[in-house]
Amino acid sequence: MNIITCIKQVPASSEVQIDPVTGVLIRDGSNTKMNPYDLYGIETALKIKEKVGAVVKTITMGPPSAIAVLNESLWMGCDDAALLTDRKFAGADVVATSYALSQGILKLGEFDLIICGKQTTDGDTAQVGPEIAEHLGIPHLSYVDKIIEIKEKSIVVSTTMDKTVEVWEIDFPCLITVDKGIFTPRLPSYKRKRELDDFKVKVFTFKDMEDQDENNYGLKGSPTQVEKMFPPTKNTDKEMWEGKDLANRMFEKMQELKLL
Questions:
Q1: Would the pLDDT of 211 be above 90?
Q2: Domains, the chain, ranges and CATH?
Q3: DSSP string computed for 42-80
Q4: Out of 15-24, 79-88, 167-176, 213-222, which region has the weakest mean confidence (pLDDT)?
Q5: With pLDDT > 70 as the criterion, what percentage of the chain qualifies?
Q6: CB neighbour class for 246 (10 Å; exposed up to 12, middle 13-18, buried from 19)
Q7: Which of 73, 82, 155, 218 could form an S-S bond across to 58 if both were Cys, CB 3.0 to 4.6 Å?
Q8: Do 133 and 116 contact (CB within 8 A), yes or no?
Q9: By the 8 A CB rule, do 59 and 82 touch?
Q10: CA angle, 10 as apex, 142 and 98 as ends, to 5°?
């Protein structure tokens, strides 16, 4: 069985810098971490590997510094990893991001299952996973919170929706996005880190993609454009009130701040 897990390097805090010209996050590798939801995706892949046997590969798109999260995935127990990095991929929205990842996945060879975290903490769209599946023309399920059974040609999972818990059987090849709590992610192994000192992560650039149309990647391939992006200003002003009729004063203040 071949499993590919999509992961991402995200800011480790809300203190982020934004390029004033392009309006996108500056991703220089400092103060970053692996997207927390992707840890659950990796653990799900490794649990399946332990149960039925599998080769687990991870893939990410980002600057060269994103290789750090790929190494972390290898230290956790994954077998191979690939980085998509190129200036032509920069500034991508969810459509262009998912398309580039789908092309990178095809470079990794045959697969039975693709696993993604439910969403990323920097974008929070929860759209990239399903869109990868659409680009690849394979079935997909989101919000998976339990692996019930792994069959020869399919997988049985449960998903928690707003008002229902649903059980689905989905044929391979397919894609699932997993929610937190499906498994407890393991820690990276120092022993594996030492063993993999000389391991080389695969690096794919635009020239490695089968589709060489630049209009499908990065800013050019993004139908949605961010008009403006900026860090929120922090307001620490305080008002202390005493006396009667505080409820009405609170109501009026909330109207003034346009909270109501």
A1: yes
A2: 2-229 (3.40.50.620)
A3: HHHHHHHHHHH--EEEEEEES-GGGHHHHHHHHHHT-SE
A4: 15-24
A5: 92
A6: exposed
A7: 73
A8: no
A9: yes
A10: 45
| CA distances in angstroms from 226 to 18, 20, 131, 208, 229, listed in the order given | 12, 12, 19, 28, 7
d(CA 44, CA 5): 9
Amino acid present at 230: F
Return the ∠ at Cα 10 (arms to 8 and 16), rounded to 5°: 155
The band of 36, judged by pLDDT with boundaries at 50, 70 and 90, is very high
Tokens of 159: 């998903």
The helix (run of H) or strand (run of E) holding residue 157 is: strand 154-160
Task: Note if the bond before 173 is cis, omega within 30 degrees.
Answer: yes
Q: pTM here?
A: 0.83
Tokens of 176: 């699932």
Element (H, E) at 34: strand 32-34
Which 3 state secondary structure label does DSSP give 4? strand
Whether the predicted pLDDT of 19 surpasses 80: no
Contacts of 38 (CB under 8 A, 6+ apart): 5, 6, 7, 8, 69, 116, 117, 120
Average pLDDT in the 203-217 region? 96
Task: State the average pLDDT over residues 103-116.
Answer: 97
